[in-house]
Amino acid sequence: MTMYGSARRMAAVALVSVCSAALPAMAQTEPAVSDADRTMARAILEEAIAVPTAKGRGQVPVLAEKFAKRLREAGFRADEIEMLPIEIEGEKTVGLVVRYAGRNPLAKPIAFLGHMDVVDALKENWATDPYVPVEKDGYIYGRGSTDNKAGVTALVASFIRLKKSGFVPQRDLLLAFSGDEETGMQTTRLLIQHPLVARAEYALNSDAGGGTVTTEGKYDFNIQAAEKTNASFAISATNAGGHSSAPRPDNAIYDLADAIKKVQALRFPVEFNQITRIMVADLAAEKGGALGAALTALLANPADAAARAEVEKYPQYSNLLQTTCVGTMLQAGNAPNALPQNATLTVNCRIFPGTPVAAVQAKLVEAIGNDKIRLSLIGEAVESPVSPVNPALFATLQRAVRRVYPGVTLKPSMSSGGTDGREFRKRGIPTYGAGALPLRMPEDSRAHGTDERVPIAAYLRQLDYWDGLLRDLGSRAK
Prior knowledge:
Blueprint: H1 3-19, H2 35-49, H3 60-74, E1 81-88, E2 91-100, E3 110-115, E4 134-136, E5 139-141, H4 149-165, E6 173-178, H5 186-193, E7 202-213, E8 219-227, E9 229-238, E10 242-243, H6 252-265, H7 274-287, H8 289-300, H9 305-311, H10 315-318, E11 324-332, E12 338-339, E13 342-351, H11 357-368, E14 374-378, H12 391-404, E15 410-415, H13 421-426, E16 431-439, E17 453-455, H14 456-474
Parallel strand pairs: 3-6, 3-7, 7-16, 8-15
Antiparallel strand pairs: 1-2, 2-6, 4-5, 5-17, 7-8, 9-13, 9-14, 10-12, 11-13
Helix pairs in contact: 1-7, 1-8, 2-4, 2-14, 3-4, 4-14, 7-8, 8-9, 12-14
């Protein structure tokens, strides 16, 4: 068998065993999601976009209360809706916990995650007002429309719909929405400490996973089971300085420049975990050619230098294989006519799950090899493990996706970005990105950028996914 054929077979076996184990038919007695339900969900989305929940605007509590009001009107008791307030740098924000009470109080609940805050937007750079939802060409434009208000509003609408239908789950289902995911995740930590959320068997995150769709209508969906963690370091050189008319060999900028080149050349070892091994084998089978052969070679021998060099031609794939560190900001000098006294490079590292931050820092120090260069951690770094493969849950998620997108096979994945999920994983709650919003790439990849938008039809189809998934998971108690 060829290496390419072996990779294809490995991927197929892994994915079938993980995601496609016996998919029993769902109950046919469930009432279909109605046009009125979709109208309600769209109204909640547009209402959410219109609340500017960026840091510094103080509007997260306003949005949380709008969600709470709608949930109370649907039949949730006041004591089942809890705000978790916190003040951060003089600004009040909140986390939100909503309990959909189950019949068995001893069963572990399931938490459904999302974040209510957004990255702020510059109105002058947008074709529309970022905080006024506008329909155009089959999309709703607005800040947060995909990140993550499409997720949280679909969950709120689904809880409302299920409550009004009279559905009673066997175990508690929880909404656990954060208010500062984009800037610090302090509300995320409050959520995890909540007595209901802390008992969760696992969490499903609407802000991760999801899928893509091609212009030909081919859909791909993934379950995010791991995230790289994020740490930034300051690499600094100092010098006594002096007048620029009398330059000398020791110079803070030149010393830092030497260190920068060594950081640029630094490579961390290729690694695999149970999630990325599946991802890479499947990617090798999909891409074929030189890239596919190189990926397959690395699966067999992570130290294969020639294979690694080939994969590094494709940074969108090579970042799955290793910890990465890259220079992102540079500050140096005090005046144009003075020798520099200080020079600092900011290096951002995306760390492979399970790798200690201290080990990454030590590797940077070793690579620079100059004890006159100082290296320090900026802020706080969060180490987070991989969530284990969960065949029963993955099969349930597969069933929910196929309810809406027949024939699609879910694929476990690791993301290079960070979400609330990393905090939940760190504290022992397995977390899986289970979003159901497919986007056309690259044209719909606008989160944090200008003219962010969500496809209306895809947004509304989420309701069928979440309705089936909530009923399925809620009907069973461990």
